[in-house]
Structure of Formylmethanofuran dehydrogenase subunit E domain-containing protein:
Amino acid sequence: MKLPDFFDQAPRITVYDPLAAFVGAPADGCFTYGYGDAVRLAGHSCPTVAGAWLMTRAALVALWPGQIPKRGAIQVLLPEAQHEGVAGVIAAVAGLVTGAAGPGGFKGIAGRFSRLDLLAFDTPVPATLGFRRTDSGAGVAARYRPELVPADPMMRGHLQALLSGDGDDRSGAAFAELWQDRVRRILLDHADDPELIALAPF
């Protein structure tokens, strides 16, 4: 299935995973993730998935300035419970890139490479999402404000028609196009917008 072209234009994230290097896949331990990987994981593309992607990217740049971030050495913290709102979706995207996992995560090899309990909910992080390095303890809190990139006003009418059963294929196509156009603007036009993704140390 072909994904929208703008997925490949969105910022990519490269990380170094010492576990991957240890087991030789890939041999250099580096993974480069694209927005399409997050979409495949979440099963859809939306402003929440895009925001989680950009928050993770911004936080890793801030925590490893001028360096490749180390996957598996990052704690991911969310203020909500896992079942609340979109916390689970945000956590899944952040976990994909960082390797952070909850109680079911990889337990490591002889005390090394553990990903266990690096993902936590119901924490006092003062933002949408928090990241903390496990080696230095340096942390950043990321706040996402999707309302700064509003949807096209026409989208609501198409959505209401579809949800009420009055919509047709034309309404469906128009809704999907406008929905993804908002995601595109978030990822391409506002990827480095400090108002959309605001970082603060914590």
Summary: The chain has a mean pLDDT of 96.
